[in-house]
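Notebook B, p. 112. Complex prediction, attempt 2.
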Amino acid sequence: MTSALPEWLETRQQAAKQRYEETPKPKRGDEQWRFANIKQLNFENLSGEAGEVDQADLIKRSTGLDQTVAKFVFLNDEVISAESSVPEGVICLPLAEAFTKHPELVEKHFMQRETLLGSAKYAALHEASVKNGLFVHVPEKIEVEGTIEVHHWVSGGVTTFPHTLVVTEKSSKVRVMDIFRSVDEQTAGLAIAFNDLCAGQNSSLDYIALQGLNEVSRIISINETSTHRDARAKGFILNTGAAWARNESLSRLEGPGAHSDMLSVSLPDHEQEYDQRTHQHHVSEGAYSDLLYKNTLYGHSKTVFSGLILVDEKAHHTDAYQTCRNLMMTDDCEANSMPGLEINADQVKCSHGSTSSQISDEEIFYLQARGIKSDQARQLIARGFSVDVVQRLECEQVESLILRFADEKFARAASV
Amino acid sequence: MSFQETASAVLDEDTQDAINIDRSKGDFKFPERNKFDAGWGLSSKTVDYICDVKQDPDWVREFRHKALAVFESKPMPTNWATKDLENIHFDKIRYYLSDGEKPKRTWDEVPPEVLETFERLGIPEQERGFLAGVEAQYDSEAAYSNVKEELSKQGVIFVTSAEGLKEHEEIFRPYFGKVIPTGDNKFSALNSAVFSGGSFIYIPKGVKLKQPLQAYFRINSESFGQFERTLIIADEGAEITYMEGCTAPKFETTTLHSAVVELVALKGAKIQYITVQNWSSNVFNLVTKRGLAMEDAEVRWIDCNIGSRLTMKYPGVVMKGKGARGEVISIALANDNQHQDTGAKMIHAADNTTSNVVSKSISVGKGRSTYRGQVFIPKHLKGCKNNTECDALLINSKSRTDTYPAITVKGNRHATQHEASVSQVSEEMLFYMQQRGLDEGQAMSLAVNGFINDLVREFPMEYSVELKRLIDLEMEGSVG
């Protein structure tokens, strides 16, 4: 496959490799890594050996939505299954194929922005190492009904570089869902994932990531979303798995009327750490962004949320909102919130809020009075707390899949 | 202040004139007549010079030298703070200037130009009016320090820090540098090395001061650094309100003000510390302020920042005893070429401690205001609560505001909430007021005063009137 890579990509990969080597590793005291556990960036302990996998069995295990418009299964960045019935004109291909079949189109959108939220070094490593992923291009006025579902399996102690590049042209529509999982429960793997989302004028782009790696693996996932005039982009992240997950989501609002929703539900337990950094970057005037992140913390888990609403000088008439809520389920969990605002424009409506609290005894008592046991009551309230975010996706099928993943986690958290 | 009064205050020409005189109120200076001058730049020689002039005890000399080493070893905090800090040239600053006189107990003994300085700033008048005691600092040393006789009889100590560390070592030393250790940050280390002036206050058990104590800090000399050091100890059940004001003439060169203020509120004590900061726009104001609140004690910082080129100030409260309470009320007004980087630090270190932060900032013209906050609640505690509210008002299209809070909560027995909003005076609001006969400037001024009104009320009467006037003044010409 590598022999057929277009020249521009080879050049960029070489440059990226150099950038990776030259960029210093994040260290304590870096503002973008405040409260972070820098030790998680020591990747030397990975075994480097891909495990033995029964591919047919893995394809069977790759369950998601009942109905999909396309479904891909990747094992350590290799395609092991691909089905697609996307409308004519829509490109929906593994990235490795797209590199050679649609080089210009891919080049135009592939990793065009600087990574600003702290993982520039790992974005460079991703760019230098990426082999595969998914490329979706929806031409003007085509609406893809349903969901494109992509399974990314990590097997063994390897590093994978899954990439998702989605481009919607004017007045088009698509929804893409990535599901990250580990083949087994005991081998520590690493995923350095990147997704580029580009919502063209008046288009609608939904992106959903379900992260359910095993609890010894780690993941860095970097998201770059550009939303153009009157377009609507929705990004959703569910974190249930991994020992450590770092999500960096940057949404650029590039045209008036652009609308970006940034959503996340995280359910950490045991020693899990989720570190989420976000930017709502209002480049254009008259755009709207709304972020809602909710964490329900069990065990000794820890979350970091650092969000910034950045309103550029000319981005007047901006509406931007940001909310991070932490539900503390045990006495040993820890939530760090850094909701930030940088406003350089006028006629702006911005707000952010962050709360951390536990379920009140009254709420439990209320449910107990109705015959629900206190354990169940707690789970019910925690679920309701998360459902609120999931419902913002406005697609029943997708919502119920996300809740299926979430419920599995709730059940495990409750059983300990 | 009623609607009518505000309207007429802006309308009336006489008032305008009065305001114009007021604008230059702090902007005057007298020739320097320093007997002691540590010269330019900072080295261990400077520290020794200060020690010699002040006749510091050996433990203070040692403390200063250690602090200097810490200052030199610490980098500028530009990894998170503004790059403007790089414009401070530590070798182009004079670290100690004084006329060698001891602080006077009556204004009559104060040298004439120093007296005139404080007369023009209205200090003796205020003292007669509503203050229990005053300390007035001129460059490095206090020129005047007095407290009402009946208070001294009750055992209230209100002296300069130099006097405190010599005359009251047994109370001073155990707390000095304990709330804010030398190495807390680069500027607390700098202060620890070269501190001079500031107050030492001790309020004995159960004594409740009805009137505030006041300190006024005046910089007269160019390219000077003022490093006062204040330590206030309120013994069990004591109550005190302390106010500080400050001004400096406007110079072309930069002036540095870097204070350290430590408050200790023992069981059940209450300390309220009020600052109205109106430095001229060439002053870097980099101040470390922190209070320690023991069981059921309360520390309140009421902070208003109007002046300076760059202010970095995050008053903090360490709630070390059960049921302790911390509060920061902050108003910041950033005008053209000003950066008000203010905030609050709330460290919960005991059960059932509560903290409250309310911050309002206004950015006018090209002004920039920043809120930085830290709230920390460790896991072994229960029943801790924090509430934080930050509201920012942007007046012009070039105005800028940032908010960077950091909240850490461990465990499930606490509650925190943080809220921030950014808004501006809407066209509709201005239009509504203009329809009722106000011009645009008056309407804007009224809206701004409305925005901060609930916080202004937290200041003592005399200050809140002054504050509203200052804000009217700063807002002048900000429209159109």
